[in-house]
Design goal:
This protein has ten helices and ten strands. It is an alpha+beta fold. The strands form four sheets. Strands 5-4-6-8 form a four-stranded antiparallel beta sheet. Strands 1-7 form a two-stranded antiparallel sheet. The protein has a two-stranded antiparallel ribbon with strand order 2-3.
């Protein structure tokens, strides 16, 4: 156990923030559709709680070995990697460093890994236990771990619902969900240049946390500088909404091109917002030409149709509805040809 704890301490000093990680520890599986670079920077800046390995259960009377043994096994946990300062806009003026710093020069309180979990708090969503420095909802002051926070997102826009509804609080259902975070008085692991920690004792640290919890009984606005919102960790939501709206606009601009052959109007193609608008007008106008024009179209109709269908087939994002329309036009043309042969 001693060697394991010692190795764990060395790993924490190199890869973690206050004994927590910068990336998820496997509580949830699936695609990570948030901006991990943004999340990592928020954790290093102590604006968002780290991804701690949760405890499956917790009793205040447990000793350190029992606490560490209660940590959830995470076989799919991903290794924590620090955000790259060279690719982050937030870190262009500051860099990361490891270790601790002290304004007074006195020896700071350095907690052990097990002591971080003292006074553990249960997350009401995943029902796992985390250190008391946990995120709190900005609106109703409810605890929520970072594992659960990053899973919450805006409703995805669809072609029938062109609105991206803001994420709502899972507790009080207030929109524009966000969290606040009060880090521990001490610092360990990754820090930015200029970050310092206060020299505290165990008793002072505990009483300070109690007083902070008492003062916290208020709500914050979504635009408050203390708040981290869902939109901050998914800054591409507006681009996704714009893409869906553009696709719907292109679909709305499509028209079926009709060609008059004999006494019938035959559908021969579909225009698109990406095609020249004049194509549709030309196709419809051809139906009003004289008999010589119709004979000319009969001679070149097969070639024109093949070219048009080829261009339509090259449109990106063609969906099932388009394929059904094209198939209906093909069948209509076959039926017309069959009728012509019988006559």
């Amino acid at each position: 156990m001693g060697n394991t704890v010692s190795g764990s301490k060395d790993r924490h000093a190199e890869e973690t923030v206050d004994f927590g990680f910068l990336s998820p520890q496997g509580v949830y599986t699936g695609t990570q559709d948030w901006n991990q670079q943004v999340v990592g920077n928020l954790i290093v800046d102590r604006k968002l709680a780290p991804f701690y390995r949760p405890l499956e259960d917790y009793e205040e009377s447990w000793d350190d070995d029992h606490v560490l043994a209660a940590r959830k096994e995470l076989p799919n946990a991903q290794p924590a990697t620090p955000p790259d300062p060279s690719t982050s806009a937030a870190s262009t003026s500051s860099k990361f460093h490891r270790g601790t710093s002290n304004k007074t020069g006195k020896e700071p309180f350095r907690p052990s890994e097990a002591s971080v979990y003292r006074g553990a708090v249960e997350c009401p969503i995943c029902f796992l236990y985390y250190p008391p420095n946990i995120n709190r909802s900005r609106c109703c002051d409810q605890a929520i771990c970072t594992e659960c926070f990053v899973q919450i997102k805006r409703a995805e826009p669809t072609t029938t619902h062109l609105v991206s509804e803001p994420a709502a609080c899972p507790y009080c259902v207030q929109d524009s969900f966000g969290v606040t975070y009060e880090p521990p008085s001490w610092r360990a692991g990754l820090m930015r240049d200029g970050q310092q920690h206060h020299t505290v004792s165990k008793s002072h640290s505990s009483s300070s946390a109690d007083s902070q919890a008492t003062k916290r009984r208020k709500s914050f606005g979504a635009d408050s500088p203390e708040v981290v919102t869902i939109d901050q960790i998914r800054p591409d939501w507006e681009a996704k909404l714009a893409a869906v709206r553009a696709a719907v606009t292109r679909r709305a601009n499509r028209r079926i091109i009709m060609r008059q052959i004999g006494d019938r109007l035959i559908p021969i193609g579909v225009t698109s917002g990406r095609m020249v608008a004049g194509d549709g007008a030309e196709g419809v106008a051809e139906g009003a030409e004289g008999g010589s024009g119709r004979r000319r179209r009969r001679n070149h109709g097969g070639q024109d149709l093949g070219q048009l269908l080829g261009s339509v087939g090259g449109i990106g994002g063609q969906d099932l509805e388009e394929l059904m329309v094209m198939e209906a036009m093909r069948i209509s043309l076959l039926e017309h040809d069959e009728q012509q042969r019988r006559q």
